[in-house]
Amino acid sequence: MIPTQSFQFGTVGSPISNPKKPGGSAGAVLHIAALGLGALELGWVQSVRVSEATCAQIRAGVEQTGVSLSVHAPYYINLNAGDEEWPRARQRLMDAAHYGHLAGARDIIFHPGGYQGKPPAEALATAIPRLAGCVEELRAAGNPATLRPEMMGKAGQLGSFREVLEMATAAPGVQPCLDFAHLHARPGDGSMNSYAEWMGLFEAYGRALGEGALKTLSCHLSGIAYTAKGEKHHLTIAESDFRLDELMRALHAAGCAGRILSESPIMEEDALLFQRVWREVSGE
Ligand SMILES: [Zn+2]
User: Fold this and answer.
1) How many angstroms is it from 202 CA to the middle of ligand 1?
2) Domain locations in the chain?
3) Is it true that domain 7-282 has CATH number 3.40.50.1820?
4) Is the Cα torsion angle 225, 230, 231, 237 positive or negative in sign?
């Protein structure tokens, strides 16, 4: 059984130490629980190629262990794609939501796309009705999954904190995926790395989406290398400038709960570190 605490910790993609047998995503669910962690995000980042039988196996593991499951949809989704490309991009998101739901996931995380040379406000005005249409179609099919556009790490990518909040405010069934490493890297000046800055962010989040939304956060975390233009690549916490302790203290002070997934190169090792620091800070 997974730990009972406000946050469940885990990895995006199978842990590095995932055994060969039973292996795969179904094995990863069991392995997350065996590691003493409580969450897994299936990394369907290239494409969604999974059978209904595999989804049933994953779901059985989820029901057995109580691991909190989400899906990272393929990278090749762009809410601001041209009219010709959009149906293919949309299908990738809908496939991730369909098979994710069969596997027992309640949240589908995806990258919202790029500006394609448009002013950000125009890109957002294209993105929001498309997103709302996806949720409508899922609900009509009896799928309750929450779609979670991720906050992105480069200034040129659709997905600033404000833009993702706006998507979530405008479209029911849409909530953010908070990527703390991306939020730190995007300004490119080393900011968004202190207790006070995180507290300000959680206040804005609660104001926009309601206090209840702070209890069901879906987050990514790792160290990160960046330049003035934002994200370069992910790092372990130890080799980065990320102030893990200040983030955890702010999450605790703001009364947050949910799921935090490691995207560090050492995956579960850092997920276990996050969990240790959370327990120290929260006393859970
Ligand atoms: Zn991502």
Assistant:
1) 20
2) 7-282
3) no
4) positive
